[in-house]
TrEMBL record:
It comes from Quercus lobata. The chain crosses the membrane at residues 193-216, 237-258, 270-290. The keyword Transmembrane applies. One of its GO terms (cellular component) is membrane. Keywords: Membrane, Transmembrane, Transmembrane helix. The keyword Transmembrane helix applies. Residues 145-257 form the PGG domain. This is PGG domain-containing protein. It comes from the Eukaryota.
């Protein structure tokens, strides 16, 4: 935050888009306000305020002259976008997702500034790309470790489900007829549900397992955090949740033949109680799943 400045600069740094818009409508010259040798563009980029930045891009400003401004250390707007600050501006958990949004912010600013800024150096003779690599190396390391731990725990669950699903898919409830080898219970609806759900559980659990293994064997380079690794984790979790649901349906359908006569009307509560532990595990992963979906927004 600027130590001294106008209301416009403070509003811009805090992302108050409505206030910035109203001030610029009534006092257009306020766009030239500066503090600590930084104009409004530099402050907005440094404080990661995408909505205010978009507002400035859409306004009728002399953007080229504003982007030419540099701070005391020779940093342009792209240099500031490439720097990782101690204060985390993105409200999203996980080092990997933080890294993804840092890349998206840097690319967003890069695509909306004059192209010559990509190659300009600051007082330390560093380009924006050099600064990005240097300041984000610890975040890349932390993101790789976070993905490793998450993928390891999820791959164990996926392997267990694949083992159970394979055993279930090769087992026929009620046995087969000796004369032609067809299932004895093939005309029951529960048998069809069991056969389909056990096959689905096997397929999607194996898919999840391979996706998590792909993450574990990744090189964890900067560019991988932009899309490749988050997508693999998102699809892996989706497959894992589907395999858990399919396995539970398969278990209930196969076990229904045992309880349908004695506990016909009480079977459903019994299944619900039996499935609670593994359902709680799936629910505990939902926050991560929704954060992954939210992380794929175009602009942070």
């Amino acid at each position: 935050m600027p130590k001294e400045g106008t209301s416009l600069l403070f509003a811009a740094c805090n992302g108050i888009t409505e206030m910035v818009e109203e001030i610029l409508k009534k006092f257009p010259m306020a766009i030239h306000d500066t503090s600590e040798n930084k104009n409004m563009i530099l402050w907005v980029v440094e404080h990661r305020q995408p909505h205010v930045y978009e507002l400035l891009l859409k306004s009728n400003l002399r953007r080229d002259s504003m982007f030419q401004t540099k701070d005391t250390y020779g940093n342009s707007a792209l240099h500031l976008a490439a720097m990782l600050r101690e204060h985390k501006h993105w409200i999203i958990p996980g080092a990997a997702l933080q890294m993804q949004w840092e890349i998206k912010w840097y690319e967003f600013v890069k695509n909306n500034v004059p192209q010559y800024l990509l190659y300009e150096t600051n007082n330390k003779d560093m380009t924006p790309a050099d600064i990005f690599t240097d300041t984000h190396k610890d975040l890349v390391k932390d993101g790789g470790e976070w993905l490793n731990k998450t993928s390891e725990s999820c791959s164990v669950v996926a392997a267990l489900i694949a083992t159970v699903a394979f055993a279930a898919s090769t087992t026929i409830p009620g046995g087969v007829r000796e004369n032609n080898g067809t299932p004895i219970l093939e005309k029951h609806a529960a048998f069809d549900i069991f056969a389909i759900s056990s096959l689905v559980a096997l397929c999607v659990s194996v898919t999840a397992l391979f996706l998590f293994l792909a993450i574990l064997t990744s090189r964890y380079q900067e560019k991988d955090f932009r899309s490749s690794l988050p997508k693999k984790l998102l699809f892996g979790l989706t497959s894992l949740f589907l395999s858990i649901a399919a396995m539970l349906v398969s278990f209930c359908a196969g076990h229904f033949f045992v309880l349908k006569d004695k506990l016909k009307h009480k079977a459903l509560p019994v299944y619900v109680v039996t499935c609670l532990p593994i359902t709680f595990y799936a629910i505990s992963q939902f926050p991560l799943y929704f954060d992954l979906i939210r992380a794929f927004r175009k602009v942070p």
